[in-house]
Every structure is written in structure tokens, then in C-alpha cells.
Amino acid sequence: xxxxxxxxxxxxxxxxxxxxxxxxxxxxxxxxxxxxxxxxxxxxxxxxxxxxxxxxxxxxxxxxxxxxxxxxxxxxxxxxxxxxxxxxxxxxxxxxxxxxxxxxxxxxxxxxxxxxxxxxxxxxxxxxxxxxxxxxxxxxxxxxxx
Length: 146
Description:
By secondary structure, this protein is an alpha+beta fold. It has three helices and eight strands. Strands 1-8-3-5-6 form a five-stranded antiparallel β-sheet, covered by helices on one side. The protein has a three-stranded antiparallel β-sheet with strand order 2-7-4, with helices on both faces.
């Protein structure tokens, strides 16, 4: 069994749902050599989050964004307002979606479903770059019995 860990810096993105599956896979080359394992993806921010969701229909992320905006609107009477009207709703949305994902790995690939992808969900109107910590634990192909 072996561990690998990488930091992935994602460039600034607009508010919304951004498919980052390919960027995650490219950032951890050891994945291709992993027979069986688990990839943990953690975002080091409190105003963005991670989600696994449908990656085929562009209406899905748009509808998810609209749903989250209805749940945590900017015009709600929040107390924490020092960082702008989009900050506290961003914290609420991040708490709802979460800051980490655990994805099974098999034969060098993420075990995502046919229509699943990894999304960075940006909740701020003017965000900075985002950092992900990718931690892979697994059995390498070469260490398995033939």
C-alpha cells in the first residue's frame, strides 16, 4: 500500500459549477498505477465547495446553482457581512455541499459513474484561485500478485 499527496491550484473562476475531473486526474499521475484505492479530494476554502454530479447536461449545474441561490439568498439578513453580500451565502452553500470527496479507484481510474464528474463549486462573485489537496491511498499495479 502506498500514499501520494499533491496540491492542485485551480485558477480563478467565475461563480458557478466548474467541471474539474480532468484537472484532478492530471494532477496525481500515481492514479494511473493504482490497482485499487481511494482518492480523497479536499478544498482549503470556506466559500467554495466540491460536488460529484452529472457532467453531461449543462442545465444540471445551472439548476443546482439556482437552487442553492434560493436556499441561501444574498438578501437574507445575515450578521456576517464584512466581506460583501455574497460571502455569508457562500459559507452556507459550502456547508451544505461540503469540502471533501472520497472517490474509489480501480485499475488506474476513478470509479465515477457514466454521467458523473467532479465539480469545483465557486460561491463567490470575485474569488481568488482555489487550492485542492489530493490524497491517494492504494495498492499499486506492480505490487499485486499475478
